[in-house]
């Protein structure tokens, strides 16, 4: 009577498995508790053993995905069949081995098979057969390694092995590994009939020697987790193969005790009272666009940064003196941005390359100054544009900056208000930044970075004095702007800020 073999329950969360490999063929005689297949789940690989002795009938093919409890094979009651089948098979094998080997003249070329989508080459790890050895069809002749796994290479024909690729040779997929001179008959020419039995024993011992000490996938994983080498485990499976049970029962060899005192171990780090929570948020479209543009600029431009420092005392004194009157007359506060905007516009007129951009193979020079001002909002960084800033008065610049900043914080900026721009100013100093290298706002060729104002000692007319100093950074595209122009531009901005009267007189 045939006994059905079902996929066993292998874990609470596992609902299906894949038949990774059949270790026995359809119609083979199997023994009770002999491993007949390897099954894989999304978490582990395990072995399937025969519940009784008998003849195997495979119902599910290798590679099929089957639910837990599915019948994948049947084992017919062995009885006389189990005894007679091996005898018949052995007789046939002996008869074939006693026949002299005859060369057919055919040559079977064995090439590196495709072993995975991302694997382009493999290395010949070990040859299990030697040059000139007689090999049988489907007999394992070599082990091949990729960067992800090791797999066996079976012979594709009966015949004499001619090795092409030596051990440790790396070959591409499809590369020639070896050739087999195809033969008929089971024994090499010159072997006597009396050597048939030893030949059979040799073939059997070869199979045993290969399987001996080789762990199954499930056993290999368990041994690896325990840190035990397969050479330390005796296999109880067919041919000495290391089974999952062998790996579970295996114990690591006792370490040799060192008489020297062990060094003091550092105490473990113990987190007390703290939480280790995490949260994930989907990136907004704005944040994705910012990230994409900034990375593109870093990759596509020859960006360089030059630095200088500005004594802000003259601007601060002028602002303190007139800010109340300025606000009373124009209804807006007098900030530093209007001074920087006007200084930048004057310098851009003198150094037009800093106000230019690249369009394919052409450089576009602008005779106007559309100044982009970086504004931080709850949704991210936005850069609205002050159009024709060179023609605006300081109160008009301050009013436009206030208007754009308010619209940015309320999320009401239009696309037109944020597109264009020929030069950008960003003020990281409001957040306390001392120094930075701002990234260019493409397709512009430069950006000016303002920083915090800190009192520092400087030399003025041979004397050390304390002055409010700001560091300025100019990042520029070296494809358009040369070093001389970038440095000269920044020096010009510095000169006008340290002598604000020049902004009014235009000198």
Q: If you had to describe this structure to a student in words, what would you say it looks like?
A:
With 507 residues, the protein is α+β, with helices and mostly antiparallel strands. It folds into four domains: 75 residues, RNA polymerase II/Efflux pump adaptor protein, barrel-sandwich hybrid domain (OB fold (Dihydrolipoamide Acetyltransferase, E2P)), CATH 2.40.50.100; 83 residues, OB fold (Dihydrolipoamide Acetyltransferase, E2P); 40 residues, E3-binding domain (Dihydrolipoamide Transferase, Irregular), CATH 4.10.320; 221 residues, Chloramphenicol Acetyltransferase (2-Layer Sandwich). 28% of the residues lie in helices and 29% in strands. The protein contains eleven helices and 27 strands. A hairpin with a 2-residue loop joins β26 and β27. α7 crosses α10. The termini are far apart.
Low-confidence stretches: 79-94, 189-209
Largest sheet: 7 strands, mixed
Share of β-strand residues: 25-35%
Mean pLDDT over all positions = 81
Shape: elongated
CATH architecture of the largest domain: 2-Layer Sandwich
CATH structural fold name of the largest domain: Chloramphenicol Acetyltransferase
Number of domain units: 4
Quickly list its features.
single chain; 507 residues; alpha+beta; OB fold (Dihydrolipoamide Acetyltransferase, E2P); Dihydrolipoamide Transferase; 4 domains; seven-stranded mixed sheet; four-stranded antiparallel sheet; 11 helices; 28% helix
